[in-house]
Amino acid sequence: MQTSLLLMALYLSIPGGTQAFKPLISGGGSVTHRDITQRAVLRKTAEVCRALAAAQGRDFSLPIDDSLSIIKLQKACSADSSSSSLVSTILFQSAIVKMYLSNALVDMAFALSKAHHFDGETFQGGRALITAGVSEVKASVKRGSFLLARLALGRVCHTLQDFYSHSNWVEMGNRQPYSTLIRPDLQLVNLAGPSTPTCRSCMGGNCTDNILPEVLQLGLLTSGYFNLFSSNKPAGKCSHGGSFDRTSGRDPEGGINKDDVGSSHGHLHHTAADVAVNATMELLEDIRGAAGDKDFLRLMGITQSSVLCFVIDTTGSMSDDITEAKRVSFSIIDSKRGTQQEPSSYILVPFNDPGFGPLITTTNADIFKQRINALTASGGGDIPELCLSGLQLALTAAPPSSEIFVFTDAPAKDTALKSTVTALIESTKSVVTFMLTDNLRSSRRRRRRSMGGASAIWPSKGGASNRMAQSDAQLYHDLAQASGGQAIEVTKEDLHRATSVIEDASAAAQVTVLQEVRSPGKAENFSFTVDESMRNLNAYITGGSLSFTLTSPSGVSQSNSEASGPLGTIQTVGNLHRVSLTTHNNTGLWEISLNSLESYSLKVIGQSSVNFGYHFVEAFGGAHGDFGLKEGRPLTGDNITLLVSVTGGDSVTVTAVALVEALGSGSEVNGTLQSLGSGDFLVTVARVPQGRLWCV
Ligand SMILES: *[C@@H]1O[C@H](CO)[C@@H](O)[C@H](O)[C@H]1NC(C)=O
Ligand SMILES: *[C@@H]1O[C@H](CO)[C@@H](O)[C@H](O)[C@H]1NC(C)=O
Ligand SMILES: *[C@@H]1O[C@H](CO)[C@@H](O)[C@H](O)[C@H]1NC(C)=O
Ligand SMILES: *[C@@H]1O[C@H](CO)[C@@H](O)[C@H](O)[C@H]1NC(C)=O
Ligand SMILES: *[C@@H]1O[C@H](CO)[C@@H](O)[C@H](O)[C@H]1NC(C)=O
Ligand SMILES: *[C@@H]1O[C@H](CO)[C@@H](O)[C@H](O)[C@H]1NC(C)=O
User: Fold this and answer.
1) How many Å lie between the centroid of ligand 3 and the Cα of residue 531?
2) pLDDT tens string 626-658
3) Nearest bound ligand to CA 551?
4) Which end of the chain has fewer surrounding CB within 10 Å, N or C?
């Protein structure tokens, strides 16, 4: 399976070495921030699904405890829980991964900030970070910025969870969360004063009883001091402990952290982790209260649906296209209303010249219908329009991995935005497909017929056709290619036959099976494997003057000239060939033999609950030698680490992960795999190959 993976540039370099529950990887049966976050998210999400099920009179029989898994919960939460329904956990899993990678990043980005880790008795500072972070999460949810909300939530969870490892809360016998940390209306009380001694030296390396008995009796809250570079700490105060903490060598020696089972207070590691899970659930409940159940489930990524996002040229010649955009969006909205595949929000960006926007983003299908209905084609000045400005706005507003459809018949005026738009495509992993109507190729053909070979004449402004030269269309081809989308060139009359790709894209549990681009084109054979989990396969072959033959696993062939054949139906419209494969006996190795000298793209999609997502992560040194979310893109030739999340349940085993060059040689670099459990793998690739990459 492949998904677009576009790379290159920029490494973060941050001092490592703070101490906390380990972020992702633990040895010896210890619990990580990842485990704590995932356990809390699964349990709280299950509670919300159970409440919604009860309200709708549905059954929810899943026990809510640590036996919950992502796939079990995703199934139990879907309204259509018949065993045959396709569920994909990719959004849910990816949301959890984002939260815990952002959580882990706190160890890297704020390594030396005491407040982020409740080190050195910074209780006011730590609590202030939590309350500010929670406000940020709530505000982002309200704006529909679920990605930003998840990243903020991950950071808040880190600080909250560290409290239970770094303070003496559990040593004082507490087994419930310290709610004051998430309640700005309550006072932090019983804090040990700045000159109150809190610890004594450990006895022969055994730190079990190093907190002073009077501190525990009086219920004074304290936490360990930590410093990588200096052994200074206030007199009589506890240290964090561990070999990286210079303060723990100074009297009182030793530490009190519970980061893992081997820590100074490792005997309380599991107790602290369990309370941290419940504290994280309490925080999630607070966010649920502000967001409401529906948005809470969107924040967690368990709501299946995607966005419907259109960017539409509204200049004078576009009225047919606008009519078609209305028709197809209405059809999608009406057929999915009330189902699990109902889009969670709708985005519309009109553009024109000299203006673009406004951005219309709504969760209400009827409002979207009204706004798209109100679009009219008019004006335009000279021919080029502000297409990339409109697209940029859509890419910024849409959640990551959205499918964005652009309708235009004119070249872009704002070509200077190409690199900005490409970078946005790479960072959001969104897929952009262009519906280009009446380009030079189709109009020239028509002209030859009607004018007996006269050379193409540029029409005056407002002419119904021939607004875009092939060189202008190339920009759209490049952007489509960079995103894993297509640039479909079609006449205005035929547009309605090409928009089935928009309806295909709105199906549930969509996966990309194969994706290839050749520019310039050449004769080549491609193969892809279809497994039992795959349904409703469609192949899109986009390009001019091409021929192809498809061969099934059992050796049956069908060429592009057979519109209806043994393997399925082939619909040709403009430069798009859409092949719908028949659903029976198609598991195994397929082949497509393609021949064209013009550039082409090939994409095979289907529906399956088996899929994967990935994030770049960065190793950081220091006490934990662990990983956090990496910003920016890796450099060609460098080694990189990816966190790959495979969804689809227990039937799936991962045997290899490789990075493959998408353009050019197709050379492959294999990665080494390390399982983290729950379908997550760390994949280390020794050398990033050149050029644009896809991940198989
Ligand atoms: C450390 O001391 C406590 C009592 O103070 C004792 O229960 C425990 O077994 C000791 N641990 C080790 C490893 O000696
Ligand atoms: C956490 O909460 C659950 C109920 O939600 C409870 O059963 C469990 O004992 C709590 N854990 C701790 C360590 O208090
Ligand atoms: C594709 O495969 C066919 C038969 O399997 C073979 O005849 C043809 O030469 C191959 N084409 C290329 C470009 O490799
Ligand atoms: C389906 O499988 C049967 C037997 O394996 C084979 O005879 C038939 O040609 C296959 N049909 C297609 C369309 O591949
Ligand atoms: C990966 O690259 C980094 C920085 O370029 C280097 O320090 C590290 O040793 C490399 N790791 C491996 C396993 O090659
Ligand atoms: C990568 O791994 C696959 C499967 O294990 C193997 O077939 C292939 O030869 C390997 N490629 C390289 C370049 O090592």
Assistant:
1) 24
2) 666 666 556 666 777 888 877 775 556 677 776
3) 4
4) C
Query: Strand runs (DSSP E) across 491-625, as ranges?
Result: 510-518, 524-530, 535-543, 547-551, 557-559, 568-573, 576-581, 588-595, 600-607, 611-620
- What residues contact residue 452 under an 8 Å CB cut-off, 6+ apart? none
Domain ranges of the chain: 305-503, 510-608
Sign of the dihedral defined by the CA atoms of residues 272, 274, 277, 282, in that order? negative
Q: If you take atom 1 of ligand 2, which residue's CA is the nearest one?
A: 278
DSSP bridge partners of 510: 607
Query: Residue 422 burial (CB < 10 Å; 0-12/13-18/19+)?
Result: middle
Rounded Cα–Cα distance for residues 208 and 447 (Å)? 89
Nearest Cα neighbor of 248 from 268, 265, 271, 273 is 265
Residue closest via CA to ligand 1's atom 13 equals 206
Q: Looking at the domain that runs over 510-608, which CATH code has it been given?
A: 2.60.120.380
Which of 114-128, 171-185, 194-208, 606-620 is predicted least confidently? 606-620
Give the tens place of pLDDT for each residue, 312-359: 999 888 989 999 999 999 988 888 776 667 787 899 999 987 889 899
0.85 cut: is pTM over it? no
Q: 209 C-alpha vs ligand 1 centroid, how far in Å?
A: 8
Is any ligand 3 atom within 6 A of the Cβ of residue 525? yes
Identify which of 132-136, 139-143, 488-492, 665-669 has the greatest average pLDDT. 132-136
**How close is the Cα of 379 to the center of ligand 3, in Å?**
51
